[in-house]
Structures are given as structure tokens and as C-alpha cells.
Design brief:
Layout: H1 2-12, H2 14-35, E1 41-50, E2 55-56, E3 66-67, E4 76-85, H3 89-93, H4 95-160, H5 166-201, H6 205-210
Antiparallel strand pairs: 1-4, 2-3
Helix pairs in contact: 1-4, 2-4, 4-5
Length: about 210
């Protein structure tokens, strides 16, 4: 019974829901921190077509001749590609520290969730024990009320038959009244304990037991 109560209470907890949302945000932050350096890279390409004004002639002499007049040269296509990295040094070299900081936040949230789960389990245990005790007390006072009711009926019958005096009949009625009051108090405690536990798990206990 207790494991099912734990599961239901944890699933119903608003604090656990908040911590889960914080964990999801921290997960996203870690992924973004890991991908941030990739956003600094850029592939550049260029294409040019035309003459080169300072093109070295392919003569056999050891000293190449450079032609200044571009019209003396044939047109040709020029392609170029490359990578560009644009980032401040503190961002570029602090990437690992940023990732570690985000991972620490994620671990902190995980620790907080475990602590909250433990707190919820302890609360469930205490509330379940109170409910169990209240149920036992209610059963006891139900039996006492039934016994007092029988004693009162017997006393009424014996009084009518003249076997007992008024004070004995009144004593039986007083015992019944006290038993009735104790029963009502026990019933109230049981119902309160049940409602508190159901509020903790977010559903009626009967529905939990039936798997609804």
C-alpha cells in the first residue's frame, strides 16, 4: 500500500512538478552550451571570374616576369572556401566552464528532487499511520457503542419490569451517551485523516486501491 501511496503523492506534488520543469530547462541549457561553439563557426565560399593583374608568366627563366596590364592575361575562374570563427576569447575558452556550470545546476535540481521525494514519503508514512490508528480507534469505539447500546436496552427492559432502580437505568443511559460521543469523535478523526491523505495523493484512496 505504501509504495502506491508514495507514487501517487509524488506524481501529485506541485513542488515535484516545478522541479521537473526546472530540470528540463537545465537540460536545454546544457545542450545549448555544448552547441554554442558550433554557432561561432561559419563556412565561407566565394567565386570570381576575370583576369589577374599580377599573374606570373610561366617562362623558363629563373626569375618570373609579372605582367602589370591585365588585358594581356586570359580570364579565369577563382574559387575559395574557408572557415571563420568569430568569438571573444573569454567565450571561446570558457565554454567548458559554462557547460560544467549548467551541469552543476542540473545535478542540484536532481538532488533537490530526491530530497523532496524523501520528504513526501515521510509525510505519507506519518499520515498513513495516523489513518491506520484512527481506523483502529473507530473500530474500538464502534464495538463500545454497540455494547453500550445493548446495555441500555437491557437496562430499559429491566427498569420497566421493576428489576432495577432509576439510578441504574440512568447510569446505563449515561454510559451509552459517552460511548456515542467517543464514537463520533473517532469517526471525525478517521474521516479527517482520510481526507488529508487523499489530498496528499490527489485522489480517493478507494480509487488508488482499485487502480483507477
Amino acid at each position: 500500500m505504501l509504495p502506491r501511496l508514495y507514487e501517487a503523492a509524488i506524481a501529485h506534488s506541485g513542488e515535484i512538478e516545478r522541479l521537473d520543469a526546472t530540470r528540463d530547462v537545465a537540460n536545454v541549457d546544457v545542450k545549448l552550451a555544448k552547441k554554442r561553439s558550433l554557432n561561432m563557426l561559419a563556412v565561407t565560399t566565394s567565386y570570381n571570374y576575370g583576369t589577374l593583374p599580377y599573374f606570373a608568366t610561366a617562362e623558363t627563366s629563373s626569375t618570373p616576369t609579372y605582367q602589370v596590364n591585365p588585358f594581356n592575361l586570359g580570364a579565369r575562374a577563382q574559387y575559395s572556401t574557408g572557415f571563420n570563427v568569430v568569438a571573444p576569447f573569454d567565450v571561446l575558452f570558457g565554454r567548458r566552464a559554462t557547460i560544467q556550470r549548467q551541469e552543476l545546476v542540473l545535478n542540484q535540481v536532481a538532488g533537490q528532487r530526491k530530497a523532496k521525494e524523501s520528504e513526501i514519503r515521510q509525510t505519507v508514512i506519518l499520515q498513513y499511520q495516523q489513518l491506520t490508528l484512527a481506523k483502529a480507534m473507530l473500530q474500538h469505539y464502534q464495538d463500545a457503542l454497540q455494547s453500550a447500546s445493548i446495555s441500555r436496552k437491557i437496562a430499559d427492559k429491566r427498569f420497566k419490569e421493576g428489576e432495577i432502580q432509576v439510578d441504574e437505568q440512568m447510569a446505563a443511559m449515561d454510559f451509552y451517551g459517552k460511548a456515542l460521543l467517543a464514537h463520533e469523535e473517532a469517526l471525525n478523526k478517521y474521516q479527517t485523516s482520510q481526507l488529508l491523505l487523499e489530498d496528499l495523493i490527489g485522489m480517493p484512496i478507494n480509487n488508488l486501491m482499485l487502480g483507477k
